[in-house]
Amino acid sequence: FEKNYSASILEPVVQRWWEKNGFYRPYGSTAVERSKDNNDENKNKTGSTFIKGNSTKSFTIPMPPPNVTGYLHIGHAVFLALQDLLARFHRMLGDSTLWYPGTDHAGIATQLQIERQLESVHQTTREAVGREIFVQMAWKWKTEKNGRIQQQIRRLGASADWSRERFT
Question: What residues does 97 pair with on adjacent strands?
């Protein structure tokens, strides 16, 4: 063991383990069934056994999608911390809890970033390149930036059900 705790080494491993074992999924979801017992009849399809909530209540909170503009800022960290707190609190109560992650719809903020890139790098405009090329550039931008944003959210320890993430 290392003498000092190294979050950059340990926490990504723990986060992947929690996600892989479905701990962020709501109880009763098709991929994860949870049970207080450790017997074979209560194991899910992956062979993992989970603790069943003792509540019949459910709690769902959607994650507002951050714009696909590159990086998260302190405002994102605040809303993520508050929503994560609510999701974990309801899990502790035994409620079937879903924190539903979403990502940007590549709207106006993304369009602005691509237009800036066109002007600064290519010395042209969206009108000059045409709709088809501009849309291709938007999808490329989304692919590059969305991965970074999702990685940042996960590094913050967000306990969202990433198996349900959708790009709007």
Answer: 59
